[in-house]
Amino acid sequence: MGLIVQKFGGSSVKDAEHIMNVADIITKTYSDGNSVVVVVSAQGDTTDELLEKASEINPKASKREMDVLLSTGEQISISLLSMAIEKLGYPVTSLTGWQAGFITDSTHGNSRIKRIEKERLVNELDKKNIVIVAGFQGINAYDDITTLGRGGSDTSAVAIAAVLHADLCQIYTDVDGVYTADPRIVPKAKKLDEISFDEMLELASQGAQILHTRSVEMAKKYGVNLEVLSSLTRRPGTKIKEDVSVEKLLIKGVAKDDNIARLSVVGVQDVPGIAFKIFSQLAAKKVNVDIILQSVGRDNKKDISFTVSTSQKDEALEVLDSIKNIIKPDEIVADEEVAKLSIVGAGMLANPGVAAGMFEALSDAGINIQMISTSEIKISVLIDKKDTRKAIAAIHDKFIV
């Protein structure tokens, strides 16, 4: 039939019952005449538990040793899943990331895939084996274990699909597709039959925890056919592809990100070069900045505010502190009680007034907007974290009925 790559997240393999369910899905796909490569994440909360163990020993452990530790979670998953498939009577072999040929750069904790040496994968498929690969991991030029960052198993799966020219890459999760909003927050959220790469990329980057952003980028670049579906319901999921059929929905989704912080550099001189001095130093330390707002100058001074992920807040504050003598701010303020809310949809391109509709919905709900950012298919606003659920519901009701 064809070659299918299937990826199963931690919740899909969290215990023996779930592992046997996944084994049944895989073997049914194989029995239909397909070649199958499977990418698996660490079971359930294993990664968090490993992080906790590391913290007990050394809260400042090197990133190299953290990679060695965290990679063991996926190794447990691939071996147990292979045992389950063996029990069902099918030929199977498990491979770590490095056995599967994942060669990465040396950025421990957030490595990028440089290439996949696919010979071992091809040889195992030629033997008619089901191949179970540990996601999220690889090896660098120095033979050190590396990891791709949280959610990196999605990227592992898409990379394998790309290099093997797979017919389909299925990402199995605990939800049965991509919804217009988190159905746990908005019960009326609708499942989408299909969504474009660009729309999915925006939703992923704005906090929709469905797919790893880099996996969507890679799928778009190499034309990988993607489908998001549930390992529990086994119903058709959401297809992610370049071109989608015309749908009535103006907005494809509402996403939230409440793991962010707003940093404000208050009262700096209103002269050329101040913004460059701030953001060049942040870039040098690889601090990712999202929404930026600069106030109109007054009394020869201005304020510059921007958002970063909470994980990079302390690093960003250290950078700002290191250039205090250069930029001479009145004060530097950090606020973690904020959330970013985004609406995404290619239909916004041809429909003026979307921003006004979003702002009206928030106004009617009594929610104040702190910062705004826009692109061709996305509008993001920064609001108080306590208003997040109310804001999502208000916006969803405004655009998606």
Topology:
Layout: E1 3-8, H1 16-31, E2 35-40, H2 46-57, H3 63-87, E3 92-95, E4 102-104, E5 113-116, H4 119-126, E6 130-134, E7 137-139, E8 145-147, H5 152-163, E9 168-173, E10 194-196, H6 197-205, H7 213-222, E11 226-230, E12 238-241, E13 253-257, E14 260-269, H8 274-284, E15 292-294, E16 301-309, H9 313-322, H10 324-327, E17 331-335, E18 338-344, H11 354-364, E19 371-375, E20 378-384, H12 388-399
Parallel strand pairs: 1-2, 1-9, 2-6, 3-6, 9-11, 10-12
Antiparallel strand pairs: 4-5, 7-8, 11-12, 13-18, 14-16, 14-17, 15-16, 18-20, 19-20
Helix pairs in contact: 1-3, 2-3, 5-7, 6-7, 11-12
Note down, in words, how this protein is organized.
The two termini are 40 Å apart. The protein has twelve helices and 20 strands. Strand 11 and strand 12 form a beta hairpin. Helix 1 packs across helix 3 (63-87), helix 5 (152-163) runs parallel beside helix 7 (213-222) and helix 11 (354-364) packs across helix 12 (388-399). It has 401 residues and is α/β, with parallel strands linked by helices. Helices cover 35% and strands 26% of the residues. The longest helix has 25 residues, at 63-87. The radius of gyration is 23 Å and the shape is globular.
The N- and C-terminal alpha carbons lie at a distance of 40 Å
The oligomerization state is single chain
Number of strands: 20
Radius of gyration: 23 Å
Strand content: 25-35%
Spans of at least 5 consecutive residues with low confidence = none
Strand order of the largest sheet: 3-6-2-1-9-11-12-10
Helix content range: 25-40%
Summarize model confidence as the mean pLDDT: 92
Number of H- or I-type helical stretches: 12
The largest pleated sheet is described as:
8 strands, mixed
Class from helix and strand fractions: alpha/beta
Envelope shape: globular
